[in-house]
Design goal:
By secondary structure, the chain is an alpha/beta fold. The chain has a domain of 176 residues: P-loop containing nucleotide triphosphate hydrolases (Rossmann fold). The protein contains six helices and eleven strands. Helix 3 crosses helix 4 and helix 3 runs parallel beside helix 5. It is globular. The relative contact order is 0.22.
């Protein structure tokens, strides 16, 4: 196994033992094949974890240990080599994220499964407030209500009102990340995956992010996060999971004999 669990710092309120399950990962493994080199690049191996409503799990480990890869595998950007990732949906059904059809994953991402990265996919000629309002409109909110909430979120993250109607493709990296966070967090999912969301953020925006995550946690959103500044979210963390880095790449032909 390539993980070690250590107790997290105290959260504002303990997660109830009766909190509903959200995610159960068993033996999840991911390896990348470097075809042009004839080598295998280990991502992570035999990871298991459980997560309940309102629980915050902090992923730690040195660079290359597979933290971001694990998040992307749960989100199904990557297909795992082995293991299961059982997600409990709001309607009571369960789905294995490791094996679900792509169309089911797309549906989950529209409301129940969220992911925040360091980067914004800024579409041309789409304003910041339109990008942030879009998830609410897709969920059935009126255009006016969605725009008002989008503006509130952008303001909370410190984006100047003069930029709300501008195109994020012209923004600085820090300004784009504020739009990225506002869009990702304007409609809380059931499970939120956070991959270095504070990168390129100023102190004010980082504080706004923590406040938003705290409110979402209180509302029952389960979260797994990797943070460049883990002290920012220390009070939200219920548990920590440390991934251990694997040895370097090996010959692909040696895999079967290993």
């Amino acid at each position: 196994m390539n993980l070690d669990t250590t107790p997290g710092r105290a959260a504002p309120a303990a997660v109830s033992p009766a909190a509903a399950a959200v995610l159960a990962v068993e033996g999840l493994t991911k390896t990348f094949t470097m075809h042009h080199l004839g080598r295998l690049l280990p991502g992570f191996d035999n990871v298991s974890l459980t997560l309940a409503e309102g629980e915050f799990l902090l992923l730690t480990g040195e660079n290359g240990a597979g933290k971001s890869t694990l998040l992307r595998t749960i989100y199904r950007s990557y297909l795992p080599d082995a293991g299961t990732a059982t997600f409990h949906m709001t309607d009571g059904r369960t789905i294995d994220l490791a094996r679900a059809a792509d169309v089911d994953i797309v549906q989950l991402r529209k409301g129940e499964l969220g992911f925040v990265t360091q980067f914004l996919n800024a579409r041309p000629r789409v304003s910041a407030e339109e990008l942030v309002a879009e998830p609410l409109i897709l969920a059935g909110r009126s255009a006016g209500e969605a725009r008002e909430e989008a503006q509130r979120m952008l303001g909370a993250f410190g984006l100047k009102s003069a930029l709300w109607a501008a195109y994020p493709s012209t923004f600085s990296g820090g300004e784009q990340q504020k739009v990225n966070l506002a869009r990702a967090l304007v409609r809380p999912p059931r499970l939120l995956l956070l991959d270095e969301p504070t990168a390129s953020l100023d102190r004010t925006a980082r504080a706004a992010l923590v406040a938003r995550l705290e409110a979402m946690k209180a509302a029952g959103v389960a979260m797994i996060g990797v943070f460049h500044h883990p002290e920012d979210v220390a009070r939200l963390v219920d548990r920590e999971l440390k991934l251990l880095r694997h040895r370097d790449t090996r010959e692909a032909g040696e895999e079967a004999a290993a």
